[in-house]
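In the laboratory, one determines a bound structure by crystallizing the protein with its ligand and collecting diffraction data. In a computational setting the workflow is compressed into a single prediction: the sequence and the ligand go in, and a structural description comes out. We illustrate the idea with zinc ion.
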Amino acid sequence: MDLIIKNGTIVTPVESYKADIAVKNGKIVAIGTGFSEEGAKVVDAAGKLVLPGAIDAHTHLAMPFGGTVSADSYLAGTRAAACGGVTTVFDYPMQRKGKGIIETIEGRKEMCDPEACVDYAFHCCITDLNDGAILDEFEAAVNYGITSFKCFLVYKKEGMMVDDGTLVKILLKAKETGAMTNIHAENPDVIDLNIEQFLKEGKTSAWYHYLSRPEFVEAEADKRAIHWAKSMEAPLYIVHMADKEGLEAAITAKNDGHEIYIETCPQYLEFTCEVYKREDGRNFVCSPPMKGQESQDALWKAIESGAIDTVATDHCPFQSYEKDWGKDDFTKIPNGCAGIENLYPYMLSAANDGKISFNRAVELCAFNPAKIFGCEDKGSLAVGKDADIVIYDPNKEFTISVENMHSDYDHTIWEGKKLHGYPVKTFVRGNLVYEDGNFVGKPGIGQFVKRVGRK
Ligand code: URP
Ligand code: ZN
Ligand code: ZN
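The predicted complex, in structure-token form:
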């Protein structure tokens, strides 16, 4: 054996039990007791939980956006991921007019390969069908391991939005090729109308970011996407769900038997739109914005009930000076916040506080994203899976600060948040990459995760 983790409590989505894990060549080869320790590195996890590494299914690393590029490179973002117990990161490369899917992905893969500190996968954002050539490429993309495509129903001026006709073509082609369609749901025309009005009235603070994109703006687009997915009998994954009305529509469609998956993010579970009234409100500007208390309560209820499938971060940080561009005009604030290092500790702390079970936290952050997105070797602690393992100390107290994070950004919306319990070790395919507050891995060890399409 290369590695034995012994005396810990293993957590799966359905049970927690005491056993040892044996690792060889990056794989879990046995779970039980009494393994020979000869030649193996032995880690004593007594009093600790042993968890599958989390999968952050939604990040934007080195993303050109909002007049700049998001602050975390592949190196910084995946280093931070490792330190927060995330062992696989999904990034969202952006296909642009005239460019192909695989061409787009290979461009980002080239950047990511030498830098990745954890394993990585790509969804591909589609912004233009290139007269149909993109649809013809779906099958090859799925065979390449890109099995999910994202449509923005918003960001019209940024040239990222797709119209309903394009969305329907993508839903159908994704269904035919065993892929998934992911959507960012907000109504762009109503946002633009609101923005125009607010700017005319001199209403320029971050609070008007929220008021230009309130609950019903997201709900309309959620419902529209659900309508098209249902009508086409195509699977749909709604990213960063933040509003109650859209959430309820998605849950109803799921309960009616439609294949709809719901992702939310820790920021929507922790903050409400009240943050936009703060002096530093611009630092919280992301789209969709945080919503009111009713939406937050509905999200937690759906986390508890099982209706929400995944929690991911939408990690897209910008530096303070970039956020400051919008001090006097909320439309100039680059949209996005940090979270990659906070995802698992936040959800596990919620479990430690009794809000959900540890099993449910593992299901939301590891098991479900692996299953939904075809990461066959990831997401659980079971024989034959990759040895992506987190050792979690339920008794460690931790206060988030930009000083103890491992990204490249200079502030965090999570500053001062107290967590009960914290990861103390992260292994990626058996390699130790994080230990007791320090990154101990190597850039370049992360590998591309070739995903499988839906059967
Ligand atoms: O504000 C956000 N969420 N920025 C990243 C891009 C997106 O919409 O996911
Ligand atoms: Zn989005
Ligand atoms: Zn996003």
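The chain has 13 helices and 22 strands. Keep in mind that any predicted model is a hypothesis to be tested, not a measurement.
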